[in-house]
Structures are given as C-alpha cells and as structure tokens.
Amino acid sequence: MLIRTYKHGGEYIDAEDAATAREELAKAIKKLVDDNEVDSPVHTFLPSLGSKSSEDTDTQPGVVSPAAPAAAEDQTVTILMKMFRDARAAAKPNWAGAKFALEQLKLKMPADPFITQQLALATYKGKQPDYKTALVEAKTILSELNPETSNDPETLGIWGSIHKQLWELDKQKKDLEESIRSYGKGFHLKDDHYNGINYAFMLNVRAAESTTPQREAIADFVWAERVRRRVIELCEERLKAGVKDDKGDVDREQVFWLRATLIEALVGTGQSERAETEKNEAIKEAPETWMSGTLDDQLGKLKELLAKAP
C-alpha cells in the first residue's frame, strides 16, 4: 500500500506542511496510476472481480475531470506560498508583497491559523500606510484566533509583539501589561524560548518604567534573569538536537533565531564574552542579511534596560 506520513510543529497543520503533504500524495497517486497496480485487499484475494473499464466510467470525452479544478487550486496555493516566502526572504524584505500573497492565500484557506498569523506579522512589519495603523490592523487580523484565550505559542508571541510595539509608540500601560501577559503565557504553557526571551525583555521594561515601590521593580528584574536562564537551557537543547526542515536539511533560518535568542539570554545574564563569540558565529551563518541588524537592534535596547537595574 502507498502510505505517506507527515509531521507538523504545533496544534494545527499549517499551509507549508499541507503543501508538502499534497506534493507527496500527488506523487503517490501518479505512481499508482502509472504502475496500474492493485492496491486493495479485496482485489488481491478475489482477482476475478476485475476492475472497472474506461467505458464504465461517467467521464465523457471533452468533459473536464472534477480533479482538474482541485489540481489548479493546489498549484495556485503553491505559487502564492512561494511568492510569500520569496518576498519575506529578500535582502530587503518586501512586506507589502508578502501581505498581498497572504491575503490571497487567506481567501483560499480562511481557517488556516498559519496564514492568519503570518498575515498579521507581515501587516505590522510593512508599516503601511503608517506604523500605528498597521499595528491596529494586525491586531484586528490576529483577533480572529482569540489570542486572549489561545494556547498556541505562535499566536501568543505575535500578539505579545503587537502590544509591545503599541506600548513603545503610545506608552499605554494596558499594552505593556498585555504584552507581558501574552509572552508569559506562551512561555509557561509550552516552555517556548521565543516567548520566554520576549517575556524577560518586557519584564525589564516594566521594571525600568515602574513608579510603584522598588521591590516590585526588583522582582521583575530578578524574574527576568531567571526566565533567561531557562531560555538558555531550551536553546542549547534545541541546537544540540539539530534543527531540520521537512526534507531533513539543516534549517538555517531557525538555527539563526535560536542562536539570536541564546545570545540575548546570555547578555541578559551577564555572560557577555560567550555572547560575543556566539554572535560572531551567528552573523557569519545568517541566511538573510537583515537578520543581523535585527539582532543588533534588540541587543542595544536590552543593554539600555540592564543599565537601569533597580
């Protein structure tokens, strides 16, 4: 029998996993048709049953097979996914192009959480027509996944990021608190390193901005360091195990972000010498040029916060 397995990394099967599975299934179906092999236990033990001849089928000459529209639809999804990936991976990411491709994908797969998550991300990254409007739009898009009650680390991480940036723009305490809540939930629920490193950062932000008794700022500062120690362990475990893509090759993008998270956690726990060594290696192997700039910006912000230790 022709069996194809699949895997995915979260609660849902996202569009990239689905596209890969479809390609494998298409190959399996083509092989079955080309080989003309019997793939049924009934026909194996009762070969006299035979198989249905072409004259018995309902399809007539000149009539398009019902499979044709589905195949065309699959091809469209594959093309749009490539457009999205290429736009995101450009030396200067084309977030407007990525957003357009994702909007078309969402029309075809409205219930896919991966598409919704990435659309929210591309929307606020694009900053169009202006930064604040883009963040509000991204917030509306992601609200569809109920981030206030979600247990999905990706949804929680993007929701935390939106509120983090709203806080940086308007300094509204509700955005600061929602960012901390969202990142913290994503970290505690799934031991997620991405949510963890941002949770620690936002705790330092609250400590630096605190107008409440000093002991609360100290508590945030101490807890941020404890979170980073756990993040270091999580990153080291993942990197040691090896990060592979669906084809079994090293996933260079995921490796870079794991290392970037490790570097930030090392800086946040005072391990500056090791952090510098790891940073040099990470930048050297970064698959996309813009990634190193993002890392440098984040480390600069963190160092400013650490200098304001209560």
Poorly predicted tracts of residues: 38-64
Order of helices and strands: HHHHHHHHHHHHH
- Regarding CATH, which class of the largest domain? Mainly Alpha
Main β sheet profile? none
Task: Describe the fold and architecture.
Helix 5 packs antiparallel against helix 6 and helix 9 runs antiparallel to helix 10. The protein has two domains: 96 residues, no CATH class; 154 residues, Serine Threonine Protein Phosphatase 5, Tetratricopeptide repeat (Alpha Horseshoe). The chain has 13 helices and no strands. About 9% of the residues have low confidence.
Note the topology.
Blueprint (H helix, E strand, L loop, with lengths): L14 H21 L5 H5 L21 H23 L5 H14 L4 H14 L4 H13 L9 H18 L2 H18 L2 H17 L4 H28 L10 H17 L3 H13 L5 H17 L4
Helix pairs in contact: 1-3, 3-4, 4-5, 5-6, 5-7, 6-7, 7-8, 7-9, 8-9, 9-10, 10-11, 11-12, 11-13
Short description:
The protein has 13 helices and no strands.
Keywords:
310 residues; 2 domains; Serine Threonine Protein Phosphatase 5, Tetratricopeptide repeat; mainly alpha; single chain
